[in-house]
Design a protein that fits this description.
The protein has 6 helices and 25 strands. The chain is mainly β and 489 residues long. It has a 16-stranded antiparallel β-sheet. Strand 21 and strand 22 form a beta hairpin. The two termini are 34 Å apart.
Length: 489
Amino acid sequence: MADGMDALRSFTLRGLSPDHTLVLINGKRRHKSALINRLGSGIQKGSSPVDMNAIPASAVKQMEVLRDGAAAQYGSDAIAGVVNIELRDEPVPFSVGYKVGNHATDDFSNDGTTHDINAAYGFSVGDEGYINLFGEMRMREPTNRAGADPRDQVEEGDADEVLVNAAGRFESYSDFGETLTGKLALRYQPQEELIFRGAVSTGFRAPNLAQRYFSKISTTFIDNVPYEVGLFNNASDVADVLGVPDLKEEKSFNASGGLAVSPTDNLTFTVDIFHIDIEDRIILSGNLSGPEIENLVSEFGAQRVQVFSNAVDTRTWGIDLTASYRTLVGDQGSLLLKGALNTTRNRLVSGVRTPSQLDESFGESIFGREARLELEKERPKNTLNLEATYDNGPFSFSAISKRYGEVLVPDNDPAQDYTLSEEWVINMSASYEVVEDYATLMVGARNLLDNYPDLTPSHSNFLGIFPYPTASPMGFNGRYLYSKLSITF
């Protein structure tokens, strides 16, 4: 997830953009933000995702994740998959919670203090109706590190052994024409402890409103020098002069397969592979520059230009491995151990479609070396998650360890490239039910070992003002300690 002045907390699946994951609330499409993640790194850059901070955590009952392409079932944005957030579906008792925490890290002993207050209350309406009210308020001090439409679906087969799922969808857009997508999925369970699954589908994603119409001029530091960079939309005169064509929909092909094995009732292994081709992928360009471009945009107070275009075709593939084991400990305790390993790769499978005016008149590529390598390599090569949860009556303890593989931070000048080394982050928390069914106290730590990413080289840190790279998957604020009290009446 990302957090910042031009970034939102969002879901990403299959190593693709947040725009490629459809977010539903109780099965209904959630609206996207109007904000463009303009300064984000890699796959986040140029996205306009759903803002998860707008949903109070106390309102969420559970989240369902479908990682197969599902545009044929749910429509645009479901190329990578679907996240359905189910809200609590019965009147909730009156409850309040208060959480306080701050960063306790070397050289910054007490900053970034956060106060989080939430409340919930529900009441019945008639025999079966109810109204739930949820609210959450977060106050955070800064850290200082300077220095749907209905679907047509058919299922057939014996649910205990073979399940075939087919879906088709036809849609007509006033500004994009027509599109037809389909999906075929198979689930085969020859015996109770073994399941095979696979799916193939086609998909699409229409450019969202923000990508078509958002415009902004802001100060961006490039090689330690501030520039006024203008993001001009496709309907602008600037985009027309540069020869940038109107945005059109992305099209995708998705194939996945896997198996789940349960040698015992307590132990389960899963293996899943996936392959996703995206044609006419919408990308945000790098900062286009040069004397002619400066002359073109100087009247708007800008020096450089960014635009959206269907500039490339991409291929994403990867593998997910998981294992889980649950066992009893003593008379009342239970222990759950989980592990997950992910490897994902992104590649360009086409040349960069540079508008002719840019190529011939301005001498610029709309998707240069830095942007290309951000897409391909500016995410961990491998990610490993290890988790242990112990429950015993009113007491619960959880430890989560996450390892991020190497990350390349590229530049248009190969000599300015640098690599962030692999990193481990450990989170721990413990809770105790002080009054059964009424009051729970929790304490915890994120990044318990106070780990930081590698420093940004001097040629890119703007005289030390930005000491850590935004591409770091683990953040750069160090250890965070917190406590939380939850009371239900």
